[in-house]
Write a structure and sequence with these properties.
This protein has about 325 residues and is α/β, with parallel strands linked by helices. The chain is globular.
Length: about 325
């Protein structure tokens, strides 16, 4: 099966592993990503690497989704200059347009699913599998509190409610208010200490592990200096403010502050989040719109994004930035 990977998966072939940045363009990793090796061993064929938001959208707050200095600007396929959203946008675009059987990415939020082929093909298979009684006995939890406080798009909310009706018609038991025990508004963004500290730490480890590192990059400070001193990185048009905050993080991963923050974060993802909601309400699965402030990534729980349908045909394009369309007619 042919597949693609986001340009953050290490490979030991002639392809670069650059995260979309010229800072890594001439480096070479010392080993290949485990999942890539396993797929190749199983007979899958790696076609190439996809564009992404540079450094997985970690460089700065003002870099566009789907843009990197090496790959340029990527667009979603459903509207002219559509914002692809998410850092793994290239992988999602590839599957949405049928360029591969599947692609690997990290939390891509374009209206298609990275691990499944083409948006329309997905809808066809999902529809054919929806037989009467197919969800009989399945308890589907709806965390209403987090939906109320973090989802504002009326079109998404409407289609979400329609999906609940469909699941109920197929036999599912809809469990209302299966809320996350520790939920508070903006909870996944409040504790940045963990993410800032671990990303800074792991960047240093990765750079030290490189088999070839011609610019002798050692840490995020070196990466920031490279970006600021190379014109092809489009600085200062786009800043490096997030990288600066990470590099300046005062707490090492072995500090008491970091360990306490990590404990709280894991609780938010487990007994205070997904696990707590499932167990407290005896649910088999939880459903909520992708745009919600959900904690699935905090503790590594699996999640699947399924298209809810298409936007209204009679709306005008709305821009996320001067050059990227956020919503438009018939956009999924």
């Amino acid at each position: 099966m042919p597949f693609l990977v986001k340009d953050m998966f290490c490979t030991l072939d002639k392809m670069k592993t650059s995260a979309g940045s010229y800072a890594l363009a001439n480096t070479r990793p010392s080993c290949e990503s485990t999942i890539v090796t396993k797929l190749r061993d199983a007979g899958a064929i790696l076609l190439g690497k996809t564009n992404l938001s540079e450094w997985a959208n970690l460089r700065a707050h003002d870099t566009p989704d789907g843009w990197s200095p090496i790959g340029g600007q990527s667009y979603a396929p459903y509207h002219f200059q559509q914002d692809p959203t998410g850092s793994s946008s290239g992988s999602a675009i590839a599957t949405a347009t049928g360029m591969c059987a599947f692609a690997l990415g990290i939390e891509a939020k374009i209206p298609s699913i990275d691990i499944l082929r083409q948006h329309l093909h997905l809808q066809t298979r999902a529809t054919s599998a929806c037989r009467s009684g197919g969800l009989a006995g399945v308890r589907v939890g709806v965390p209403r509190k987090i939906i109320r406080e973090s989802v504002e798009d009326v079109h998404i909310l409407r289609d979400f409610e329609n999906s609940l009706l469909l699941m109920k018609e197929l036999g599912a038991d809809i469990v209302e208010d299966a809320n996350f025990p520790a939920f508070e508004h903006g909870w996944t963004q409040k504790n940045r200490l963990c993410s800032y500290s671990i990303i800074s730490h792991m960047t240093s480890i990765y750079l030290a592990s490189l088999a070839h590192n011609p610019d002798k990059l050692r840490n995020l400070d070196d990466v920031v200096h490279f970006i600021e001193s190379h014109e092809n990185e489009d600085f200062p048009k786009y800043s490096v403010d997030t990288f600066r905050k990470m590099a300046a993080s005062p707490h090492a991963v072995d500090s008491k502050e970091y360990k306490n923050a990590l404990k709280k974060r894991l609780c938010m993802g487990a007994e205070g989040g997904v696990l707590g909601a499932l167990e407290n309400h005896n649910c088999d699965v939880l459903v909520l719109p992708t745009d919600s402030d959900n904690p699935t990534d905090l503790a590594g729980y699996p999640s699947i994004n399924i298209p809810l349908g298409f936007g209204p045909a009679d709306i005008s394009a709305e821009y996320a930035t001067p050059d990227l369309v956020d919503r438009g007619p018939n956009v999924p």
